[in-house]
């Protein structure tokens, strides 16, 4: 991740200690929930409300500095891998989530059978399975 303050400045987002800490948390803990991110931020800067973390995550997502994904049955997850059209692989047992490069070529990398007049620019795919660790337990 680039310097968080520079990223915020270049995106026109006011620089705050909370936003810097949230960006760092997302970078260090890809696919983390807001609660996990809040725990990291509290450890870094002290007291912060859960609402302030949600507000920061929302602003950073809207500005394209982080990406929000929400696999079915899961809380929202956040990552700092933005600017490409990668996909995700989620374990059905432990919910481990990893990045998978685009299935074919560049964004949207998949083509709908019909576009219904839409200009499609992204495809979001989540692959589901059982991770190697959970396969051993089965």
Q: What is the succession of H and E elements?
A: HHHHEEEEEH
Structural class: alpha+beta
**Tally of DSSP β-strands:** 5
Give me the side-by-side strand order of the main sheet.
4-3-5
Question: How does the overall form come out from the CA principal axes?
Answer: globular
Bin the strand percentage.
Answer: 5-15%
* CATH class division of the largest domain: Mainly Alpha
Low-confidence runs: none
CATH level-four homologous superfamily name of the largest domain = Winged helix-like DNA-binding domain superfamily/Winged helix DNA-binding domain
CATH-derived topology of the largest domain: Arc Repressor Mutant, subunit A
Rg on CA atoms, Å = 17 Å
- Give helix % range: 25-40%
Overall pLDDT confidence: 89
What does the oligomeric state look like here? single chain
Task: Give the CA-CA distance, first to last residue.
Answer: 37 Å
The name of the CATH architecture of the largest domain is Orthogonal Bundle
How large is the count of helical segments?
Answer: 5
Q: In this structure, how is the largest beta sheet organized?
A: 3 strands, mixed
């Amino acid at each position: 991740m680039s310097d968080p303050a520079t990223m915020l400045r270049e995106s026109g987002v006011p620089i705050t200690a909370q936003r810097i800490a949230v960006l760092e948390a997302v970078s260090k803990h890809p696919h983390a929930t807001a609660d996990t991110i809040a725990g990291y931020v509290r450890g870094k800067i002290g007291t912060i409300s859960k609402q302030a973390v949600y507000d920061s995550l929302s602003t950073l997502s809207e500005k394209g500095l982080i990406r929000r994904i929400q696999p079915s049955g899961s809380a929202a997850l956040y990552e700092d891998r933005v600017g490409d059209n990668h996909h995700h692989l989620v374990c059905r047992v432990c919910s481990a989530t990893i990045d998978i490069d685009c299935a074919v070529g560049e964004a949207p990398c998949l083509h709908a059978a019909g576009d219904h007049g839409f200009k499609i620019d992204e495809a979001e795919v989540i692959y589901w399975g059982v991770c190697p660790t959970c396969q051993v337990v089965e």
